[in-house]
Amino acid sequence: MSNERTALYEGMFLFPQSATANLQNAVDHLKGILDKCGVSIINFSKWDDRRLAYEIDGNKRGVYFLVYFNAPTSKMSELERRCNQSEEILRMMVTRAENLPSETIEANEGAQALADEIKLRSEQKTEASSGKTGSTVSRKEDDAPAPKPKKAPKAVETAETDEVVQETPEDVKEVSEEVSEA
User: Fold this and answer.
1) Contact (Cβ atoms closer than 8 angstroms) between residue 82 and residue 71
2) What is the three-class DSSP state of 36?
3) Cβ atoms within 10 A of the Cβ of 31, count?
4) Of 95, 5, 83, 68, which is closest to residue 37 (Cα–Cα)?
5) Closest Cα to residue 98, out of 71, 66, 65, 79?
6) Are 177 and 169 spatial neighbours (Cβ–Cβ below 8 Å)?
7) From CA 61, how far away is CA 84, in angstroms rounded?
8) Do residues 121 and 128 make contact, with C-beta atoms less than 8 angstroms apart?
9) Among candidates 153, 15, 7, which has minimal Cα distance to 72?
10) What are the residue boundaries of the structural domains of the chain, listed by start?
């Protein structure tokens, strides 16, 4: 019988936003790493999908997974090493959670919600690929032609001393006749 010391841990694991396209692969990858380290998972949930404070490996958004687990203290360095070697996990943080009440841990249970989200995303993916339904955006085009712009009246400036007179072709004709008679 082993007298190996175990402790309760809280782990936050960050995946790139591209993991939302296939959440099941991300969940399986993380659970595989935890299983290889001899961890017994108490609570596993998708915490959030957020914009990152700064860009990490070209990613501006990320998906966080929150995991509460019991693990041998000697296996924590192996867990950290495996997470750092993983190309899918961007960041990870594990802290001891022995001071957390069990109500807090139970309140963060999200395995069922995560399973529902995975199922919903896979259904949407199959619908989109089969072309059954999808959100389509259509434009309403007007059948009537566009109205013609109206001509604006010409503005004529007048000064108190100078008066601007607008000449019509008839006025020009009269002036030319007077000039030719003279």
Assistant:
1) no
2) helix
3) 15
4) 83
5) 71
6) no
7) 19
8) no
9) 7
10) 6-130
Q: CA angle, corner 167, sides to 161 and 170, nearest 5?
A: 145
The CA distance from 94 to 76, in Å, is 9
| Local structure of residue 144 (DSSP, 8 states) | S
Beta-ladder partners of 92: 13
- Dist CA 172 CA 53 (whole Å): 76
The closest alpha carbon to 74, from 128, 7, 170, 120, belongs to 7
Cα–Cα nearest to 112, from 161, 27, 44 = 44
Residue 33: left if φ>0, alpha if ψ -120 to 50, beta else—which one?
A: alpha
The residue that leads in pLDDT, 41 or 131, is 41
Distance CA 91, CA 177 (A): 95
Q: Residue 1 has what pLDDT? A: 47
Of 66, 62, 64, the residue nearest 108 (C-alpha):
66
The answer regarding whether domain 6-130 maps to CATH 3.40.50.10490 reads no
Q: Dump pLDDT digits (tens) for 86-121.
A: 999 999 999 998 888 777 777 777 777 888 888 888
Please give the mean pLDDT across all residues of the chain. 79
Answer whether 0.70 is exceeded by the pTM.
Answer: no
- How many angstroms separate the CA atoms of 55 and 62, rounded? 10
Structure tokens at 153: 């009246």
